[in-house]
Amino acid sequence: MRTEGGFGHANDLIAFIRARHGRRVTIGGACYPEGHVECRDLDRDIANLKRKVDAGLDFVVTQLFLDTRVYFDFVARARAAGITVPIVPGIMPIRTLAGIERMTKLGGASIPAPLHAELERSRNDEVAVAALGVAHATAQCVELLQGGAPGIHFYTLNQSPATRVILTALKTARLA
User: Fold this and answer.
1) Which range of residues forms the domain containing residue 89?
2) How many domains does the chain have?
3) Which residue of 23, 72, 135, 154 has the fewest CB atoms within a 10 Å radius of its CB?
4) pLDDT digits (tens, 9 = 90+) for 131-157
């Protein structure tokens, strides 16, 4: 709900900041590779992102996704729409099955069927689920970076051990 005198959409806020501060500030925004939960029309969602970028965003960070094809398809759609700013993939290592199910539902992301089946097999073993989460996120990061992603944004939710393990693996592979 818009408060009196507030901004109706993110692009309004971005334009306000850009008008007030010019290029002295760097502005990043969010994007939704599988569509915003309030806008399941992917073309309309890209058009909304284009408005935010045109208002002055310098880069965007995706909400979480668990299939790297989703990111690369999203980047291709964004580029076709004239969006040229860096699109940084947002990765959230899976810690628990209940947690990732909750987060994907809230953010409108999907869990690939093979990954979900593997997680289901380990549902009652949090250590196994977390290990699978680290392995999956590491594989995502390698594929993303090798595929040209400009970097990685980690959603740690104040739980950094998994991210540290992933970063160590990326450094070993000379990708970080």
Assistant:
1) 10-172
2) 1
3) 23
4) 999 999 999 999 999 999 999 999 998
Look up the CATH number of the domain holding residue 17: 3.20.20.220
- Residue whose pair of structure tokens reads 């109706």 in the numeric block: 8
For residue 51, give both structure tokens: 């408005």
Residue 2 lies in a domain: no
Is the CA virtual torsion 78, 26, 56, 64 positive or negative? positive
Domain membership of residue 4 (yes or no) is no
Q: Is 119 left (phi over 0), alpha (psi -120 to 50) or beta?
A: alpha
Output phi, psi for 64, to 5 deg: -60, 150
CB 149 within 8 A of CB 143: no
Q: Is residue 1 part of a domain?
A: no
What dihedral angle (degrees, nearest 10) is formed by the CA atoms of 176, 112, 39, 89?
0
- The tens digit of pLDDT for each residue in 94-133 reads 999 999 999 999 988 999 999 999 999 998 999 999 999 9
In this structure, which amino acid lies at residue 90? G
Residues near 11 by Cβ (< 8 Å), separated by ≥ 6?
A: 48, 51, 52, 54, 55
β-sheet bridge partners, residue 87:
60
